[in-house]
Amino acid sequence: MTPELWTIVWLSLKISLVAVLVTLPIAFVLAMLLARARFPGKFLLDGLVHLPLVLPPVVTGWLLLLAFAPNGPLGAPLAAIGVSLLFRWTGAAVAAGIMALPLMVRAIRLSIEAVDPRLEGAARTLGASRMRVWRTITIPLALPGIAAGAVLGFARSLGEFGATITFVSNIPGETQTLPIAIYSALQVPGSDPMVARLALISVLLSLAALVLSEWLSRRGGVDHVF
């Protein structure tokens, strides 16, 4: 593990962690809406949430580039207060979070749907408010699935490549995550040892996250997360 490798690994972990922390509340709200609410356009919302799973990642990155450009609908307000996500690690976290969102929503939604509504109904008949039922019954019972969704999102963020490189480019020390570093090393003759080390680190981190996510899912009684 050279200093260069440590920089790449640390940057990848930081981007993935920030992506999950920012995306998790959004994923939870969307999962609650899709699991419990009934409203017009629910199927459309479900389709939009899962769209990053089927869109080419490069398209997602291009759309982010348009949205967060200095004159874009989201970039212009940010530029007015001196904030820019282009070619920054924060932009890489946004791209990773968007690509991880569908998997997180699905895991959390399944965990919420697995909560027995009779328990919630019994608590309501005993005088508990909707908020108290949600806080003391729904969330604790769904917590393993929520944790599984977060870990699964972390694993997906670690492997994000297409949207990230399109949106924030390949800048060593700033946006060069493990997948981008592997791609860059593959372009250099004689870099097989570096590629092997980076690939091994990626496999170990991703496998650990997937195993943890599966364990949390089974502990919470949630099947078919993937």
TrEMBL record:
Transmembrane domains' residue ranges: 15-35, 47-69, 89-112, 133-155, 194-212
InterPro entries from the UniProt entry: MetI-like, MetI-like_sf, ModB_ABC
Pfam families (UniProt xref): BPD_transp_1
Keyword terms: Cell inner membrane, Cell membrane, Membrane, Molybdenum, Transmembrane, Transmembrane helix, Transport
Annotated membrane topology: Multi-pass membrane protein
Leader sequence segment: none
Main localization, broad class: membrane
Compartments where located: Cell inner membrane; Cell membrane
Stretches assigned to the ABC transmembrane type-1 domain: 9-213
Family recorded in the similarity comment: Belongs to the binding-protein-dependent transport system permease family. CysTW subfamily.
Function: Part of the binding-protein-dependent transport system for molybdenum; probably responsible for the translocation of the substrate across the membrane.
This protein's name: Molybdenum transport system permease
Organism: Sphingomonas glacialis
